[in-house]
Amino acid sequence: MYFQSKSIASLAPKLLQTQTQRQIEERFISLVQSCRNLEKLHQIQAQSITHGFFQSPFLAPKIIIAFFHLQKPNLALQSFQQIQQPNAVLWNVMFKGYTEIELHAETLRLFVCMRKRDVVPNEYTFTFVIKSCARTLRWRVGEEVHCIAIKTGYESNGFVGTTLIDMYSSVGVIESARKVFCEMPERNVVAWTSMVSAYISIGDLEIAQVVFEWANERDAILWNSMICGYIERGNMEAARELFDQMPGNDRDVMTWNTVLLGYSNSGDIEACERFFEEIPEKNVFSWNGLIGGYMRRGWFLKVLCVFDRMLRSPTATLNDATLVAVLSACAKLGAVNIGRWIHVFAETSGFGANLYVGNGLIDMYSKCGCIMDAMLIFRSMETKDVVTMNAMIGGLATHGRGLEALELFDQMLQEGERPDGITFVGALSACVHAGMVEKGYSYFRLMTEDYLITPWIEHYGCMVDLLGRAGLLNEAIEFTRRMPMKPDSVIWSALLGVCQVHNDVHLAKLVMNKIIKLKPEDVTNYVVLSNIYGTAGMWREVAGLKCLTRNTGNAKLPGCSFVEVGFQVVEFCSFDARHCKTPDIYQVLHGLKELLKSAGREPNVYEACE
After folding, report:
1. Helix (H) / strand (E) containing 572
2. Could you give phi then psi for residue 306, rounded to 5 degrees?
């Protein structure tokens, strides 16, 4: 007999004759457990059948488990069906395999087969089957399984009871969950945690707190569940109070990170900073939590400072989420030099082939004006997803390379990749830049009719912008009127931008009246209208508009910008005097102004009211 593997060849007939039955069986089991190759697993299974070991209650489960590990549930089922009289252990192996790979419908079908064969389920069976009922939201089926558990005497089992509580609470049937909990003869900390989580899931924190206080024992998971409940409802004060009551021995890094993330998500970044410094042993999620808080507040310079601190810390570790956040901060700041350094760092730190980091690099380079670098990253990526395509299509569109963006979009469709709403925003933006009205209409119909994506306000804004820039003002207004929702400030701002392109003062006034009613505090639109008036030489209206913004408290805040000098990002604002070299800076600016004047360049200066 010919063997393709040395390990399998070791089971040749002569060797089999020199070993006991138990030794041979153990040898088969060892081979199966170490097997990571489907072809070899088939060979081992074939040999076990040939030599009469496949029906072994010890070997058969191992082979079935191996098929599940190789993501071959159909082969696992075929092997299971070859067993003449599968015992409860073997049935449970199948249930476990299906639930682990989220094939919950198969779990329920197999349970029906088990009942038809009159095989008695045990506590492990009920745990897997009830969990599948919860995952598929089939709580009526779960009720039937619950009845079977009662008839077979397993309802009082702690594992079964806890799983029933989780199932009923997952579909909001709290009364049934409470009944199971109350009828449990012994309630361990897992049961208490399940009941607390059940009340938290329906937002009843008062009852959850009562159950929490009744618990005869509490572990870190129970404490964390209650703390998470308060955080999810935005009650950081109660969450922090509970955290302070928590015994020090029960506090793990997950507990610290949960509270940190709560502060971060609530926007209380100062409390987040203080709490971060209190964490005794910070892990990557601690650092990422602080970085996430800064990102949400728009404090991108601080993101870079935290990243620098991480690199200098001997204990800090980072992951792909860290790099993606820092790349996003670089994109916001226009810090392309730092972004390039992070690119090299990612390559040398084992993140070069990471999908999420690749997407972040495309986004960073695109937003920093380096579209060619973004395209190089895109072409070098072996694995791409819809986010990758969105970043590249959007980047090309933003850089005025609409035709290339549309070619990439069409290629995406031809390859069978399903676009999402963001993809169509990029495609429609590309149509705007390329001035392709008919193409824009066809993509809009494709989105709604073929992919059944409900248009967002951004999609409508792109279409209005597309029609308006093409000079089809009446069509743009008509498109706005046909929208299923009322136009918001995004739509009217798009129309105002169109008025600026065509210098349509009359329409601009009408549109601005709509914007003032919806978003009077947005000074950007006042600036656009002011520019329209200025282009038309209507300086009196410009001055009146400035008076209006000041009198209504909508005066434009001092503008702030960032400039990257080498590997340092510097923030500066209008009339800023914080920099140590302020006199030198203003001296250079004054010199530039004089040079412009001597070259005959004069600014548009118009009278402004006091």
Report:
1. strand 568-573
2. -65, -40
